[in-house]
């Protein structure tokens, strides 16, 4: 890790490229941070985005080539932008829309990494109130019933 990693809280721009950084927790104290460049590090999971949510000035983020990016660039990008909607630039790509639209069916990857999907869902669950969580609960129960029915039909064939 770089010599100043996590020590200064007054930085506006931080670059730690090609290091062994594995957590974003130290950055969470840098309330004035507007640009964060962490390309080619060891950030393992998109759950680390939690530490960036409290940075009101963060507008530029570069996480490309970290393990958290996974095999599906679209899923990675949508997860980051849904959790950090104030970003103007992600991985050197300008975010032109005022909000992130739902992902169309055809834009999904055929073989997304299950851990990244689960991480994305769990991050989004943190933002829901009791009404939203109840809606998710009902949908999950319905989905589980459909999967169990499908498994039963396949077993009978």
From TrEMBL:
<dbReference type="GO" id="GO:0007010">
    <property type="term" value="P:cytoskeleton organization"/>
</dbReference>
<dbReference type="InterPro" id="IPR032675">
    <property type="entry name" value="LRR_dom_sf"/>
</dbReference>
<keyword id="KW-0433">Leucine-rich repeat</keyword>
<protein>
    <recommendedName>
        <fullName>U2A'/phosphoprotein 32 family A C-terminal domain-containing protein</fullName>
    </recommendedName>
</protein>
<keyword id="KW-0677">Repeat</keyword>
<dbReference type="InterPro" id="IPR001611">
    <property type="entry name" value="Leu-rich_rpt"/>
</dbReference>
